[in-house]
From TrEMBL:
Protein name: GntR family transcriptional regulator
S1 motif domain sequence ranges: 148-208
Organism of this sequence: Flavobacterium jejuense
Signal sequence extent: none
Pfam families, alphabetized: S1_2 (PF13509), WHD_CvfB (PF17783)
Length: 278
């Protein structure tokens, strides 16, 4: 059986003028064409090939060795190539663009701009389509993560409250703006850590390690800053949190723990005007 919108590992069944036909030796009725332009230089009948399967311009399954920017049931940040009376068509790395019907656009898309989308199978047409109404594909009722767990994040959108993220391509989460120290944009993928799964299903996320695990990396950041500044850093416990955030990209709470860690190891000296490297 062919899996549309996914990678398939298939056998080379036969070589023709138009390309290789791939499939299973048991069910050759379910074969698919790999056009000549994607055929490897060396191959043998019976070899296994891993290809991506999608529908061509005539809605027939076709194989390619190109790597799409998104697969079935995944999120991606894609660019709109053009728009017509039916909807938007996005560049997903393949010859045929990925279609976004007008009804699946959270707001009217514009040519040349990028949008976060979800790729799914339209049950009515049996075609791969995309939607920028991404919230409908996320579920915060059946939570599959725990506090403190490292997770994969995709930045969804940015609001006054903070950075809205997609967690493990399953759940909605929020990283509060005052805890974000790096420049982030929609579509960026990164690692994160679960701070709190609330009873109402809302999930608080940190873009940095939590608790004791956060101290060592933060201590190293301070050491590196000291070494690059001739052994002096004009920050201490009395410094304004915004100054610490600007210089070190960490909260004052993490800064104090990291400084304490370095002091206990006798690597620094703390004075009124700042921190000195020993």
């Amino acid at each position: 059986m062919l899996h549309i919108g996914q990678y398939n590992t298939l056998k080379i069944l036969r070589d023709t003028k138009v390309g290789l036909f791939l499939g299973s030796e048991e069910t050759q009725d379910d074969d698919v064409l790999l056009p000549n332009k994607y055929v490897p230089k060396e191959f043998h009948i019976g070899d296994d090939l891993t290809v991506f399967i999608y529908l061509d311009h005539e809605e027939r399954p076709v194989a390619t060795t190109l790597k799409p920017y998104v697969k079935l049931n995944e999120f991606a940040h894609l660019k709109v190539n053009y728009i017509n009376k039916f909807g938007a068509f996005m560049n997903w790395g393949l010859e045929k663009d990925l279609f976004v019907p007008f009804k699946e656009q959270a707001r009217p898309m514009e040519e040349g701009k990028r949008y976060l989308i979800y790729c799914f199978m339209d049950e009515k047409t049996n075609r791969l389509v995309a939607s920028s109404k991404t919230q409908q594909f996320l579920d915060n009722e059946e939570i599959t993560i725990e506090n403190g767990e490292e997770v994969d994040l995709i930045v969804s959108h940015i609001t006054e409250a903070g950075i809205n993220v997609i967690i493990n391509e399953k759940h909605r989460g929020l990283a509060y703006k005052n805890e974000v120290y790096d420049d982030v944009k929609p579509g960026i993928r990164m690692k994160g850590y679960i701070k709190n799964v609330r009873p109402d299903g809302k999930i608080d996320v940190s873009l940095r390690k939590l608790g004791v695990e956060a101290i060592e990396p933060s201590s190293q950041v301070i050491l590196d800053e000291l070494k690059s500044n001739r052994g002096f850093l004009g920050l201490n416990d009395n410094s304004h949190p915004e100054d610490i955030r600007t210089v070190l990209k960490m909260s004052k709470k993490v800064f104090k723990k990291a400084v304490g860690n370095l002091y206990r190891q006798k690597l620094i000296e703390i004075k009124e005007d700042g921190i000195y490297l020993l």
